[in-house]
Structures are given as structure tokens and as C-alpha cells.
Hints:
The complex is a heterotrimer of chains A (323), B (289) and C (315). Chain B is an all-alpha fold and 289 residues long.
Amino acid sequence: MENNLLKVNDLIIEYHSDKKIVQAVNGVNLELNKGETLGLVGETGAGKTTIAKAILRILPDPPAKIKQGKIFFEGTDLLELSEKKMSHIKGNEISMIFQDPMTALNPIMSIGKQIAETIRLHEKISKARANIEAIKMLELVGIPGERFGEYPHQFSGGMKQRVVIAMALACKPKLLLADEPTTALDVTIQAQVLELMNKLKKELNTSVLLITHDLGIVAEMCDKVAVIYAGEVVESGSAIDIFDNTAHPYTKGLFDSLPKLDSMESRLKPIKGMMPDPTELPSGCKFYDRCPYAVEDCKSLGAEKKEMGSGHYVLCRRAGEVC
Amino acid sequence: MPAISKNGRAKSQTMEVIKRLSKNKLALSGLIIILLLTLLAVFAPLIAPYGYAEQNLNAVYLSPCKEHLLGTDRLGRDILSRLIFGTRQSLRIGVLSVAIAAVLGTILGSIAGFYGGRTDNIIMRILDIYQSIPGMLLSIALAASLGPGVNNAIIAIGISTIPSYSRIIRASIMTVRDKEYIEAAIAINANDFRIITRHVLPNAFAPLIVEITMNIGNSILAAATLSFIGLGAQPPSPEWGAMLSEGKNFMRDYGYLVIYPGVCIMASVLSFNLLGDGLRDALDPRLKN
Amino acid sequence: MGNILEVRNLKKYFNTPKGQLHAVDGVSFAIEKGKTLGIVGESGCGKSTLGRTILHLLDSTDGQIFFEGKDITRVNKKELVKIREEMQIIFQDPFASLNPRMSVRQIIMEPLIIQGVMTKAEMEQETDQLMETVGLARRLSGAYPHELDGGRRQRIGIARALALNPKFILCDEPVSALDVSIQAQILNLMLDLQEERGLTYIFVTHDLSVVKYISDEIMVMYLGQMVEKAPADELFDNPLHPYTKALLSAIPLPDVHAKRKRILLEGEITSPINPKPGCRFAARCIYATQECAEPQHIVEISKNHYVSCHIAESH
Lengths: 323, 289, 315
């Protein structure tokens, strides 16, 4: 498709330690168009961050091994590119925001300098011009330009995260990988940051891969959603598909686990049990042990990918019958 | 990741440390040498072909030969036997002096680190003054004032190394002290003694273990130095440093008199250091998983 | 009647190089036995400090704390031991609040050992019982915290808090570090325990949907002060303080059709060091007027609905 920016095909990633093999990502397919936001939803250890790091090719090898799969960015497979070409893409075309803003900022360099340096790393312009650009970026994320010369410790958490966003967007990337960008922030600050990301996304026509565990943020930010469980996409589709026509028992379980603000339930209905140990994934459907609708076939034959509606895919043998 | 093995028995952290240590070949060889030295020390009378003070004036300055594998000294004493008995001395000095320093240092460091504030200030400033005197000089001064002898050397070396333990344990406790599980222990009425012994020290011990191992080597060296200048073990004691000292006058003609004790000192110090380095890596939580 | 805990004008100041930090500044409230008071606010609002001061993990600067009608503000060592048997705490971070060198069993049994009234066999039995109560499998007895996931660790923390059979438990963000599906399991467990044992909770959190689910009453804090307090539903249906309104509007709702006007706050939280006498929210408040520089008073607007804002009063 002409409009397509990112396409992940059949990605399999493992972590190898002493004796064990962690099956972190098990055949993931994703698609993201220009200007769209795709939400990657799942719990700790589901493999979300691994996928994002694989796209940027910053997985530490060892222990991580990409066993199989292709990651197409504007038609070229990133996994095939030379280091040199990839480093050009990193930062220029794709950049990433991490959960903890502190780890992304150098504590002994002023934030303005850090942004200017990022710009100069990817664009051949003079120092003075880079500084001007950096001030512009700061103002774009709502930080007064006068604070150019201040150091990270002089900023609050929310401001630091906005600096990180400014840095990530400084080179006007086509794709932004945002890994839980607001998890460490307070709700009112989170609201500011989300609003800012939405605004910048529209202005710069950036596509965003938003990794989060918060379905509220997904509802607010995302056009498309992929729900990840034990390294697999169990349900994907438009945000409306996922929220209104929930088809996978795990997705439904996630919704039922959330306390609602507008209803008076006396007890939540959590998903029983825990995610399977990624070093010993069960055969058959990986959600089998926790699924209230599981039947014998789910274990013996495994899960089956079904299309529920145009573009709405569910990895469940019984999708449509239940939920 | 939950890492419960199939039978549900979880491995303790100690087991994991041992497992990691066993993968480090250098540390393992250090450990093996230390174990060998320990065996030599324990069974010295059985292993050594002669007594350490057994003189034979008919066989002085013998080069290595069948009867005396490493030769004899100016009094005809068998050097191999003296070296074997010497392990007893050296290990004893190393272990005991470190034990003195570690126990006293830990107590002082724990009090300073756990209570902080004024207590901390007073203890640490005293230790500062203490540390402004060079360690070796301090041991020499202490050994000289206590009088020559192995036991006094042990005390002198032990006392002069207290501050390094205090500092390590204090730093380590200060990081543990603010952990939530300490607050949790307070909330269930644990008293200070229990908190320090059950919650703080076990979690602050790792760097101390490394320091102890490394320092046994250093103490052996320090003891050898004291003996060398005549303040440590006295003749006919076969302490390695004392042997060096005795041999130094005849070094030109009979080099082996100093080479063998020198090699023994080096090997023992090196193996303690190797083990210490290995322990440091094995105990480092950053290398976990 | 039936207030198990009452706090009057409680203050906790910290001395910092820059001046006095007013972490908790004149907070008053009461909790009925068997109920849950939710305390919400953003980081730095003093909600955790308030809880720890009530539990005497921190010394209060001023004010009074009553437990079952008795003034426990200043107590001696012996009384403190007694108080701590009745008041317990569950921590936010199940990773940091468990001693990594102790096994599950040792952690849960420790309060009993310290209390020292049971025989060894009784303690063993009680520990088994506690593990069952919180849903920890017997086979995990010998496991160490680092081998377990967050949910199970939090269950250990709960079992430890229950060991002395307290009447009151301070829950300091107990589910914030957990995934949603596990979070729901733990919340349900806490509600079950409350029903079975008649426990009273203070539930400190920054997560507003969780606090609504678990609390009977909710208190909103801003920079060490209470700005609003009301029954849970009332607070969500009819928030009066501008800060509460902004806070509620900032929660991202898991609903793609949700249409609402978000109140975006400008600027950052002002410093709690040597604060000025007026409303501390004024700097960020869209309704702020001159009167906001005057000290604010807490007023009961409707039954059990308290607010500290002169604008909300006049509406």
C-alpha cells in the first residue's frame, strides 16, 4: 500500500541466557500507515518493548536474537540494512521515547545543548542554527526558550519528559516509538503530555507506535490497536473494533479488570492466574490456562487467526461464538 | 521472571552466587590454591619431611637435592618443611587480623551508617584522623609499642585496617537503610538490633565479603613486612616474611633462600585477590540474569 | 460515632536547606470502623507522608491522632508496640518492601516471631493459614521474593500486614506497580479481607479509577492540604474544587466514544517549601481571583462534602 510506513512481518525474537530461552516475541505482524497512531497494548513481559527495540535495531545481542521476520520501513527491510544506513535512519526517520525521562537525558549537559546536538547529529547545520532550532523545539513542547541553558535536574518529571519528546521530534522523524511515555507522570501532567503529542503528531504528520498498558490512553490516542499477549498479537484492528467489538477473551479480560468510573460494580472480574513463563510457553493457545471459554481444541489444535470484520483480526478459535 | 523450578524448591541467593563463582576459572583456581594452603597448614606435621626448627649443621646451605627438595638454610633446616609450617603462620595472621578488623569495623560502620547524623559524624571523623596515618606506619608503630611477636603483629595489622571496613559497611548500610523493607520491619515492631542483624547486614554484606577476601592477602603481606623488619614473627618461627628477612643477607650466594618464601607469599596473596575479584563479580546484582 | 481513627490538624514539616517543607499541613479527617478512606493526589502532595505520620513511622510536627478514641499522638515505646499491632501498612513497591534475603515463609512469620506470644508450632500453623488467606500456594514457602512476580509479592506484603491481626491497614499505592489483570485480583482480595475481618483501610493512590472502586469516602490532597473530601460517588458526580475537577477530567477513559472537555492545567506544582498563606492551587487555577491569596477554610457544602475553596462555596 502506498500509504504504508511500517510493516512488521512474522517477527520472532528470543533471549538466550545460560540454559533457558525466553520466547519474547512469537510471530508478530503489525502495520502502520502514515500519520496514524498504533497502540501496542499488553502487560509487563508481553514483549511490547522488545518489538519497539527490534524496529530501531537496539536490542542487545546477545542475549536477544531475532530468529525470523522482516521489518519494512517505507518498503526497505530494516533488518537487512548496513549499520551505517541504519544509524542514518535512527534519529532521522525513527526515534524513540522511553518510559523514564531521566535515563534519556545526560545530567551534566544543558538540555538546550542536548537537543541542539541531536539536531546536528542528523543535519549538517552550524552550531548557532542548531541552537535556534533547539529553542524552537523547546517552545513547541511548551517550555520557555530561556530555559535553554538549564540542566535536567532543574526540571520536573513532566517537563523532562517534554524535553525528551522535543529531542525525539527534533529531527522530524516519520515514525515515533513511544514506550510508556507517560507512565511515570502524574495524571494532570500526563494529560498535558498526551495533548502535546497529539498536537505535534498532527503538525508534523508523524506516525506513532504507542506502547502502553493503559486502555484509557489507547482510547484517547490511537487509531489502531494491537493487543499483545505472551509475545503474540491476540487481537488487532481499529480502535473502535477493539473497544466496541471486543472479540478476544484476553482483551475482554483486560476491560473487565479495569474499575469503571461510571458504574457501580461491587467486584471486578479479573483474569485468573498469570501470564505463562516465557521460558516454558505452553503448547496450543497461550491463553488457554486463563481463558474462561477454553475448550479442548484450544489446547490440542492451538489458536486460530480469524478475521472478524475488515481489518479486525483475532487469534482465537472460538472468536465470534463467545465474548 | 518467576523462576521457580519444577519441584517448587527455589534456589537461595547464596546458591546462585556459588554457581556464578564456579564459572569463573581464575577465581576457582584462587580458591583451589587457598584450599591447598589450608590443607598444608592443617596437616603440616604429617606432610613436612622435617621439623621446622630441626637443625642439621652438617647440611647447611644445601642446594635442592633428594633429601631436601628445596635445599637447606644456614642452620641446615629444611626449607620445604619450614615453608609448609609457614602456611600455618601466614594463614593464621591473615585470617585473625582480618577477623579483628572486620568485626570491629562492622560494628563501628553499622552504628555510623544506621543511626547517621551526629553518631555517624563522630565515628567517621575519628576514623578520618585514624586513616590520615599511613596504614603500614600505624602497624609498625603499634607492633613496635606492643613488642615483637606474631600475636602482636596480628593485633597491629587488625587495628590498623579497621577504617576500611567501617567505610565499606557504612556506605553499604546507608543504601540499604532507606529501602522500604526496613520501614516494613519497623512497622512490625522489629527492634534496632533485629533490623540491623536481620535486615540491614545480610543485604549490606556483599562488599564486605569481597573486602575480607582481598584483605587476607594484604594482611599476609603486611605480616611478612613486619617480620621482615623484625617486628613480627621471631626466629625460629618459619613465618615467610621472617624467612625472607633471614635469607636476605645470603641472597647473592643462595638466592633460593628468598625466592621460595617470596613465591609462597605471592601465590597466597594472588589467590586471595583472585577469589576476591571473582566474589565481587558473583555478588554483583547487576550481573544477575 | 464508631470512628476508629481521627486526625486533627495534623502537620508534618521537614527541614530542608531551603526552608521548611510543609509535607502535611493541617489535615483533619475521621474514618468509621470497617470503611475505606481513599486519599488521592499527585506526587509530592504529601499523601504518603500523611499515612506514615499516622502510623508513627514519621513523627508528627503538630496536631493530634486518635485511635479508637485514644490520643496516640505522643506515645512511649510500649504503647507504640501495641499501636503497631493494631495498625499495619501495605507498601507500594512489592519489590522494595520485601527483604531479598528472606524466604516467603520467613517474611510472613517475622511479625509473629517479634510479637513472641505464640509457640513455634502455632506460628507455623498461623503462617500456613495466612498464606492460604492471601492465595499463596504452599509450595512457595521457601521461595525468595526475587523469584516471584509482582502480584505474588504483593500477596506476601498483605499476609505480613495481616499477621498481627490489625484493625486498621494503611495501603500505600498497593496496586500501582501491578499490571491491570493482577491489580484487579489484588483489589478483590483486599475487599474480601475487609469484609471477612472488618478491616478499616486508608487507601493512598494516584489512580482515580481505583480509588473510586475501593473507597467509601475520598479525600483529595494538594500540596500537603486537603482540598476536598466527599463520599466516593458524590465526589465523582459533583466535584467542587477546581483541582478535583481538573484531576477528574485528566483521567484517560477506556472508551473511544467518550467526549468531554478536559481542563488542562497550566504550569507546574508550586514549591511546598515555605508556602504562602493563600490557596496553594491558585497559581494553576483558571478561576483564581484576588481572594485566593487569603487563607482558605474548609466548609461542609452538603452532607459530608467538604471543600476548601471560596469560589466553590459561593457557587
